[in-house]
Write a structure and sequence with these properties.
The chain has four helices and eight strands, in the order ααααββββββββ. The chain is an alpha+beta fold and 184 residues long. The protein folds into two domains: 96 residues; 75 residues, Lipocalin (Beta Barrel). It has an eight-stranded antiparallel beta barrel. Helix 1 packs antiparallel against helix 2 and helix 2 packs antiparallel against helix 3. The N terminus is likely disordered.
């Protein structure tokens, strides 16, 4: 009899745990869905605001910064869970590519801003003031420089879209590369 009650309790606990896990999964899905729905709405609002702006450099900078702020939690979610939101990130990346930094931007200022650690969706990169860069877990021996609005790494060149104290976003060969500054 005691064994039967223990089995019932064990089964009851297992059922209760399964319910809790199901509810936890449902809550996570709901929160993720709500957050992504909000991100889509934020993206559409930012795009509409830019369309009605003066389209000058200040408006471009506000717009691409807002796009970075919308993309940042999506990229963070990908880093943590592997879950990708390709549709919205594709739309954001497409907009970012349309709005590169001006060619005559202050390269010296960009060089100073780039120095430090930057987290991409897959790894952390280090850019040193001596013009060397690399993956944090590997050698930091490759060369980098900035010329106008272009990041030059060896033989590759990418167009800088946004480089500030929080985000480093550039485009190369049709792809957008998103980095967040590692705060130490």
């Amino acid at each position: 009899m005691a064994q039967a009650r223990a089995a019932e309790r064990s089964d009851g606990v297992a059922v209760d745990m399964n319910r809790r896990l199901s509810l936890t999964g449902l809550c996570f899905f709901s929160i993720t869905f709500i957050a992504l729905g909000g991100a889509q709405e934020d993206f559409e609002a930012a795009r509409a605001a830019y369309e009605h702006s003066s389209h000058d450099e200040q408006a471009r900078l506000i717009y691409v910064t807002k796009l970075a702020e919308i993309a940042s939690p999506l990229v963070a979610e990908y880093r943590q869970s592997g879950h990708r939101n390709d549709k919205l990130m594709g739309e954001i990346n497409s907009e970012l590519q349309k709005h590169p930094a001006p060619r005559d931007i202050d390269s010296a200022k960009l060089k100073r801003l780039l120095v430090g650690k930057w987290e991409s969706p897959r790894r952390t990169y280090v850019f040193r003031a001596d013009g060397k860069w690399g993956n944090e877990e590997g050698p930091i021996s490759d060369n980098w420089r900035i010329s106008g609005n272009e990041l030059v790494e060896g033989s590759s060149r990418g167009t800088i879209i946004l480089l500030n104290s929080d985000y480093f976003i550039y485009s190369e060969k049709g792809s957008v590369f998103f980095h967040s500054r590692v705060k130490e």
